[in-house]
Amino acid sequence: MAKFPKGFLWGGALAANQTEGAYLEGGKGLTTVDLMPTGENRWKIATGHIDSFAPKKNEFYPSHEAIDFYHRYKEDIALFAEMGFKALRVSISWARIFPNGDDEMPNEAGLQFYDDLFDEMRKYDIEPVVTIAHFDVPVHLVEAYGSWRNRQLVDFFERYAKTILTRYQDKVKYWMTFNEINMLLHLPFVGAGLVFKEGENEIQIKYQAAHHQLVASALAVKACHEIIPDAKIGCMLAAGETYPYTSNPDDVAKAMEKDRESFFIDVQARGEYPGYAKRFFRDNHLTIEMEAGDEELLKNHTVDYIGFSYYSSRTASTDPEVLKNQTSGNVFGSVANPYLQTSEWGWAIDPKGFRITANQLWDRYQKPLFVVENGLGAIDEPNADGTIEDDYRIDYLRKHIDQMGEAIEDGVDIIGYTSWGPIDIISASTGEMKKRYGYIYVDRDNEGNGTLKRTKKKSFDWYKNVIASNGEIL
Ligand code: BGP
């Protein structure tokens, strides 16, 4: 069995918008995700097509209450502490700090909330790992500026980042800029608050917005290094190796091209756009407007570590017959891999792919890796006595942690593992509550009914042992 390094950061990962609820409390402004209902409209909105910047009466918006972590975080953190968490990844909601995004002064009630939250973690020696932007843009910035398509967002983001870096400099030593930065290419409203008008060149807008986020990310890295010299700040990629469906060189080349979404990380970790990205812009007649000084900024302020999520591998094919068999529920346009089983939501389950992905990222960037998301979204059926035997979840996690250990044995430098949704939360893609990742069950259904009571699942004690044995006992 592989040895995990001493001080390995075991824990879990959450995002404000999927967890906190209290969507207008404490002076918080509306964020993009507060406009995303469950049901069929969600997908349309996620891809940048929305007709109202206010919630509608006849829709259900799961982020509005989520699991009420805003009021119950003490109870939840006590449970994480009981499992022995060394780290907890959370995000700060931009609109709790700057309700409109472009406000001159931050909102003190919002700042205080996260002060209290970090104090609560520190009480149990849980290291906060903080994502500055996790899928929520203040709605005012979308309406008034067009969100990340507008260069002005860089300044608003910089002000926000500097405000929180300064405020929490003594409490937070691990930071991350944008969650799954590549997601803006697939779900542009989710990743970047982008809304498209009929007939617009969506691809041009997405890559321009990406450039703005990359500049903003470099500015946050710069600010972090200046304000908290002993902190580490990383980027975050929705990772997952793309396999060729066959050994046909056409398939191999297609898989290679699909993996080139990691150009984001090339910019954030190596400090420049790679040649293949420039070629892609040329071939697609895209003009990315850059300001004087951007290139130097990107070059000089690269990240300290590579954060990534890994849920599954992807598979690419050029064969029209194979292409008919796209996996469901996956935004990466992957075809079904005949060697892999899938989750109830159609995500391929591939522990070995985790080792491969970690090796590829390490070989490529030679910077420490931090696994900040991994897990199985599944339906849990409580027994009559309320217990939940989630052996399928244990099985998934056991195999993935084992492969992470293999990657470490391969020489990959991995500093921590925060599994996704250690307590059941709202699903980002579907808005459902029944897609659960947690070691802790939350009594709430897709329509928002339930007591919100927390119950330990079977996986709770299992993960507790994994942490206590530093990954020796799986
Ligand atoms: C990632 C996001 C998370 C999270 C996770 C699981 O894309 O960073 O916010 O939700 O995926 O996805 P889902 O909630 O759709 O199952």
UniProtKB/TrEMBL annotation:
Any Pfam family hit: Glyco_hydro_1
InterPro entries assigned to the protein according to its UniProt record, in alphabetical order: GH, GH_1_N_CS, Glyco_hydro_1, Glyco_hydro_1_AS
Active site: E373 (nucleophile)
Key words of the record: Glycosidase, Hydrolase
Superkingdom in the source lineage: Bacteria
Similarity remark: Belongs to the glycosyl hydrolase 1 family.
NCBIfam families for the chain: PRK09589.1, PRK09593.1, PRK09852.1
UniProt name for this protein: 6-phospho-beta-glucosidase
Source species: Tigheibacillus jepli
